[in-house]
Fold these 4 entries.
Entry 1:
Amino acid sequence: MVLRLLYILLLINVDLMSAQIFDVENIKLSGDDSKRITLVILSEGYQDSELSQFITDAENFTNSMFNQSPLKEYANYFNVYAIKVPSAESGADHPGTSIEPLETPISPIVPIKTVDTYFNATYDAFGKHRLLYYEIDGNSANNTEAIISTVLANNFPTYDQALIIVNSSEFGGSGGKFPMTYSGFWGANVAVHELGHSLFNLKDEYYPGDDLAAEAINMTQETDQNLVRWKNWLNINDIGIYQYTCATGNCSDWYKPHQNCIMEFIDRPFCSVCKEGIIEKIHSLVSPIDSYTPVSNTVSNSSFPIDFHLNLIKPIPNTLESSWSLNTSNIASNVDDVSVLETDLNAGINTLTAIITDNTQLIKVTNHETIHVYTVTWTIDNSSLGVNDIESDINSLSIVMFPNPANTIANFKIESEKDAKLKVDITSLDGKKVKTVSLSNYTTRQVDISNLSEGIYVANFYANNTLVTSKKLVKQ
């Protein structure tokens, strides 16, 4: 994965020579950790003699999590590991200090007890009976967060997200930096719900309280059907604009996309809006290009034909689409391999580009979110003596176009990891080019379209004269 949480750089005075090292087991291996989202599961409240049960629990949780859409479709984008952290005693604290009424039989009366565990897991955190957290409140949790971070830094510093499974049969869990879940029947669903918060930036679809209410993927104060961020899903799969309900607070000011999502009810699947948000986050963290050949300087004085190959991280079923162009002319689509003949090349420098996008039907992103495009470009130096050299480069682009529909002004933006000549061509449906605009990397360009007739146009985005994606633009 591109972004790594290297806590080892953040911890001060950690003596690595005397650091406590625990056993780490692989639960799910899809590929190179640097090119996957790496989930690390920590044990809490499992004694030494119970760590084999922890591994069984971690395996069962992993199987259950990746049997739920869209994690099921994008399982190849994840690796999962388990760190066996032993506790002196089993379970979690039950201080009995909750200020909310018990919800029997979901929250049965349990004996008040304190147990000696590694991460100090406790129920009744923040005064809520089912809130299972490390420490009883935020102030006490500071030191425990440092302990969790140290364990991760010493045992698996290149993790992307940690999850803590607590050895308890009583329902409970929490989100935050290090989400927790109990090991009982609904534990895997709780884990998915809490990872929805911690990893994918989703909000609760029951009212989370005024302090946690905010504009997000699945939470808004916008009620205009033409402006709400999930407008492309409205009236599909029961997606609407539903008002939150509660007895106190400002819940009536906030709206959610669905009434039966796992972000509200633990026994339900993700709604379509949350699925889309998860997939968009996955694409922002991991490129679907696992590897490619040839890489720079591996081909010299090559004989023809020259073979080019993509190794992609494919969803299940595969929804990736590829487009290949040689010197800006399309030569193949939806294949992982192409062969180039000597007669295909011009004298001098030639450019072969593969463009990869995800065409999953689980995404309806057109206007309000980023479009993720990935490219591999080979520069082929061809002379009368044959191919002298092939250089390769990989790039990730994000493309934004808003608003859509637009009336007088349309905004265009391309973010390219590599320097590139960027532009957008606006064409009518009959193929006539009506406007060409040069773009600067990472800069939003406002384009006056007031002189265009009302109707549908196509915005074609180019990087180094190669078409990377086309989006529909509606002029009102």
Entry 2:
Amino acid sequence: MEEKQLTLSACIVNYGDPAEALRAAASVLEYTRRHPLTLYLVDNASPDGAGEALARGAEGLQTAEGQTVRAICRRENGGFGAGHNTVLPELTSDYHFILNPDILLGADTLSDLADWMDQHPDVVMARPELHFPSGELQVLPLRRCRLLAMVYRQLPSLRFLKKINDDYTMADRDLTQPTEIEFCTGSFSAVRTAVFRAVGGFDEDYFMYVEDADLTQKMRQKGKAYLVPQFKAVHEWHRAAHRSLRPLWWQLRNTFRYFSKWGFKL
């Protein structure tokens, strides 16, 4: 039986030194071979000429047949969601991938996820299993945002909240099989492009943090979100909220914005 040809697109948003984003881009191009791919590299108005450096680096990336790379330099940093929404009007692919600059592939995970979603037409959003570079599994939220679980993930010394976090990460479920989820991380998400466009992409008012939880809820109004653990990727996971107060403030503010929109859960 002849394999169905799908069209893929992916976007990596960069701010600052583009070396990591270019490494992620090279990884995506190296391993994504079964389906045509358009890869967008969006610089979010980085200082010190980093956007120009990203564009120059993009020109040096090795592409295979059917692969296209496009670098876009924004004049204003509108945040994570705005950066990804930059390409929204241009998307004509079957499946689109939202990728962090600290993602690395070791297999054709984009094609694998697209093929799997194409076989499951009720699924509009999915993600692979993510690991640290050491190989350790990343335990990420899979159920809808709840306040006490988010507090625990910032302050794990509060051991009395562990059970709530276990519920948040679906520790009660067998996550070695494809599983329907309520929260699809923005570090690596696959979306049906037509649905992503229909919901208007990200809510840009979040600027940074929790916008992925918001997008998941918008997408879930059109279909299902899934963890598909047989497909994997490496995520280095830079947790800025642990290192300075400003990102932590963004996270807290956006959490309450999310709750006001989708309902509060303690």
Entry 3:
Amino acid sequence: MQFCANKLDKKDFFGKSDPFLVFYRSNEDGSFTICHKTEVVKNTLNPIWQAFKISVRALCNGDYDRTVKVEVYDWDRDGSHDFIGEFTTSYRELSRGQSEFNIYEVINPKKKGKKKKYTNSGTVTLLSFVVETEVSFLDYIKGGTQINFTVAIDFTASNGNPTQPTSLHYMNPYQLNAYGMALKAVGEIVQDYDSDKMFPALGFGAKLPPDGRISHEFALNGNPQNPYCDGIEGVLEAYYRSLKSVQLYGPTNFAPVINHVARYASSVKDGSQYFVLLIVTDGIISDMAQTKQSIVNASKLPMSIIIVGVGPAEFDAMVELDGDDVRVSSRGKYAERDIVQFVPFRDYIDRSGNHILSMARLAKDVLAEIPEQFLSYMRTRGIKPSPAPPPYTPPTHVLHTQI
């Protein structure tokens, strides 16, 4: 909305007035709550205030006919602002936009009571009124946007020998290791948003059979042409199977798996698909410069990266990649948006051994930033959600009795 005023009362002894507006929402009990203040326009009786944004909830709690009260003041340095007058309106009136209905007389009740010839203390005019509908993450999902979930697992030697109980990759026949728990916790939530539940699962930092070549993006199921696993159970199965066949090695390079997903993400920019890469790692990263470069490039694409750090390492590098405090940059170029969410797994291991509670918390924190990252991509690209298809109604079968 944007407002201007005309011929407001002069309140300052030396100058004109320094007017500003205060907007109040009326509450159920008849009281008023301030919901917006404009800036002060100095030394004028005909101010034009800057346009401002306010949510419908803040203005009238979604009730279009509820009273909105507006007070006009003359600003004073000592904080004792002089009251010029007031008027009331409503969302419904304002939504008519710039028109004769939206020119308001500013009335000062005290003056009105004293002066017989009092008409008003000036007028306030609505210059413009625009409504923007905020769309949610679920509006896109309902409209058919697909979430593609890819898993990448750290197979570097720093994780420890999988046959030893001290290893983060320990193949314990009775319970999931740290990698398994992290995959299950996050994957079980994400798989609800992935309609085909087929997840490409990659490993990095291992020597592969038969020739022992080092790979930083190999298919866990052994099929590079089709690295898809069926559901999170399928990913876990492929993970445990590959632990038996590959040799943990190094170094810990993230860029190849990030670029792997980015190649897919760069081919669908119409908002119909969004890619989420989950990297589970013990955290000592070797290709920091290349990884930053990959993240800066990926920030322009429909993708997000989740890093779950397992084990006791210092995760300073991961926190840096997370970009919450300082946006990730590479060669002087900053990431267009924050696309990395990092969480240390150890913060979620419940001391009492109650993994269920911790896993729910882990999943919640890991996925907390995805909807906003997703929306920021869609907003900057001007992509609106497709309308949701009508709800499915099963056909009614007519039974023919055979004679």
Entry 4:
Amino acid sequence: MLTSIARQSGTAVRVLLVMTLLLGIAYPLGIWLVSRLPGLSGPAEGSIRYSADGTAVGSSLIGIDPVAADPAADPWFHTRPSATADDALGLGPGDPSTSAGANLGGFDEGLVATVAARRERIAAREGVDVSRVPVDAVSSSASGVDPGISPAYAELQVPRVARVTGLPVDAVRALVAEHTSGRVLGLLGEPTVNTTELNPAVAAAVGLPGG
């Protein structure tokens, strides 16, 4: 019996050592080496964005709605509404430390009124009729800090950005195109414009402090 216990204990120890080497050392090391490959190291480290002096200023995966110094001369592309924003309509910077959605259904009367109010405010900001405001401009994302907006929402904002910054409309559209990603594999999802990357490109083009 003691011989059997000793044999089983020895087998268990050997399995423990082998699995520790495989799953505790070899596997994490392999994953780390893969993450160092060109094109993967940035996403593996959180897709961090850096300022010109090398200071980390955020992540391209997190969208924080920019606040213009002068709302009447707003040069920035705006993100979707956020349920964590201080603004009553969610049209301000969300709180990335409390990522959350509104969790309200389409038949919620409060949500319907909020969406209508958002549409009116955005239409006034862009100087267009409310019918031109796309759905993602008035509906919050599940995270509340999604940096992506639809090309339609970006296009709605192009004339204002061009007017305030002094850039030609075609130049602003070109910046939008540079920061638009298509469908995954050409089939999955929808094209999106990353505002977290687009606003600094606008700022660099006109010499403004970052977006």
